[in-house]
Amino acid sequence: MNGSVRVGDRMTEPKLAARFGISRTPVREALAMLASDGLIRREDYGFSPQPPSIPRVRNLYELRITLELQGITRAIEDPSVRHDRAALESERTRWRALAADPPAQEPQFVVTDEEFHLALLASSGNAELVTALESVNSRIRHVRMYDFMVNSRIETSIAEHLGILDAVIDEDLPTARTLLHRHIGESLSVVLDKVTRAVTAMSLAD
Do residues 37 and 140 touch, judged by C-beta distance below 8 A? Predict the structure, then answer.
């Protein structure tokens, strides 16, 4: 993810096992996990880094924004649609605890972040929107990790999540929608910057 492995570099089980002084079994498992996350791709000779596609990232983020905002928009347009207040209160308690004791800065925070966005969307009552968002998340998770490799992004995300939750719970849905849109847009800006840098580094790595 930091670009230290060049695009086209050959990664094989024997080579990596020798490098780290371990057996081939954990190497095989690690390569399978990286391939599943979309970080590497299988080649005839083994594996090589998978450069992220910036146009594809943009398109998937556009779809993500559409899905997530719809959870709030449908409640604005139809007064009979009400968010699950108990679920949101529970989520707010969880994120207040994270604000009091923020986790370490590391890419896997993306999973915790996804849980928030899925819970928020689920609280609007449309399970099909949630299923669609889960599909999008699985395709952008490997690039969204970049969002949490930047200093203070975890703390910033926690604060923004709480602001969104407060607005929805207070039934100030237009404000909640604006905050959510801005939150996802800022994430996209960070991700695109980091992905662009990583792709350049992959091309130039020694």
Answer: no
Q: Which helix (H) or strand (E) covers residue 174, if one does?
A: helix 173-204
Q: Residue 6 domain-assigned?
A: no
131 class by beta-carbon count within 10 Å (0-12 exposed, 13-18 middle, 19+ buried) = exposed
One-letter amino acid for residue 70 of the chain: Q
Structure tokens at 112: 């915790």
28 — phi, psi (to 5°)?
-60, -45
**Token pair 């996990």: residue:** 33
Cα–Cα distance list, 111 to 48, 66, 106, 134, 154 (Å):
25, 20, 11, 11, 12
Counting the structural domains of the chain, the total is 2
Residues of the chain where predicted confidence (pLDDT) is lower than 50: 206
pTM exceeds 0.85: no
In this structure, is residue 2 part of a structural domain?
Answer: no
